[in-house]
């Protein structure tokens, strides 16, 4: 009889709560992951739009190539190339249109900083014990740099949209 009471005593209301908490945590994690995926997709659409605004003669990367950043591991390296080629293309397009008062390579510095910090977090974050400590602040800084880079590219797109395509040919 003591065994039966012990087994029954092991079953309590916390089991239902634990299941509910696990499902809620899974739901929150799903919402966060979907939010991050949506942000990445909108970012890549912005990068594609930026390259589409450049004439083919000034374009150093085809617009559709930005989507290669979604490939695991390869995407980490490709993001450096996208930042460099996009800033080079936008700079050439700004010069071609005769637009002054902008960076010669829009977003290059902050874009590279974002890539470097992201690579640091990806490489160091997996180390046992010290990985989380050594990647927390660089991770936050990387997110900030990524947002600043995204905003700078968006502003450059707006400037290009307001300038006639053949302005540099006058």
Concise description?
The protein is an all-alpha fold and 170 residues long. It has helices at residues 2-10, 14-52, 74-97, 108-124, 131-162.
User: Kindly, what is the distance between the CA atoms of the first and last residues, rounded to a whole number of angstroms?
Assistant: 98 Å
Q: Give the helix tally.
A: 5
Largest sheet: none
Helix percent reads: over 70%
Q: How many domains in all? A: 1
Q: What structural class is derived from the secondary structure elements?
A: mainly alpha
Overall mean pLDDT score? Answer: 87
* β-strand number: 0
**H/E element order:** HHHHH
Low-confidence stretches: 1-8
Radius of gyration: 24 Å
Hey, roughly how much beta strand do the residues contain? under 5%
Envelope shape: elongated
Describe this structure in words.
It is built from 5 helices and no strands. It has one domain. The longest helix has 39 residues, at 14-52. The protein has helices at residues 2-10, 14-52, 74-97, 108-124, 131-162. It is mainly alpha-helical and 170 residues long. The termini are far apart. Helix 3 packs antiparallel against helix 4 (108-124).
